[in-house]
Each structure stands twice: as C-alpha cells, then as structure tokens.
Write a structure and sequence with these properties.
The chain is mainly alpha-helical and about 130 residues long. It has a domain at about 10-90. It is built from four helices and no strands. Helix 1 (about 10-40) runs antiparallel to helix 2.
Amino acid sequence: MTEDRVRYSDADLEEFRRIIEEKIEKAERDLALIRESFINDRNNGTDDTSPTFKAFEEGAETLSKEQNSILAARQERFVRDLKNALIRIKNKTYGVCRVTGKLISKERLKAVPHATLSIEAKNMQK
C-alpha cells in the first residue's frame, strides 16, 4: 500500500462511509439538543424574582443564546462537511488531498473524517 495511490479501495470507502454516517447521526442528534435548549432558554423561571436578579439572568440568557447560536452554527457546518464527505465517497475522490493529490492517511481520516487536506498540506498552510 503506497501513499501515492490515486484513491482508496471500494472496501475502504465503504468503511469510511459507515464511520461518517454514524458521525452524522450523532451530530444531528447533538444539533437537535442544542436547538431544543435554545428554545427552552425562553422560560428561565425568573418571573417572580427581584429586578436585580432578573437583570443578571437576562444578561446570562443573552450570553447563553449567543453561545448556543455559535454551537449550532458550528454543528451545522460539521454536518454539512460530513455530508460533503459522503459525496466524495460516492464520487470515489474521498481521502485525496485537495492540495497535494496524495492520499490522506487512514488514521487522519478516522480522526477527522471530513478532512480534505493531508497533514503535509495542512502544515504548508502554517
């Protein structure tokens, strides 16, 4: 097995497809939880508390909403990147570095299944 192969075998691609589909399923569940907590943040139970405490709560609520929004956006990007990886598997271009044209190591793809750059290419960016 040489690193200069043009693409991964169909068996390898199938293995990566299963890994990615599991990650998509988990990521979409996580995204649903983030969205659900965002909706539930509306009822924080401070209706009958002192005005000072309510002001602190509203500040914390705003921060929490911003954090949830950032988390949700990041999670949506992750799901999109994973789905794009599935398209590359279908096209049999998955695992090929978009800079060097060489295969990205299996270890890297198992750790970061949506990677489009080899470690070599990633280091060149620095």
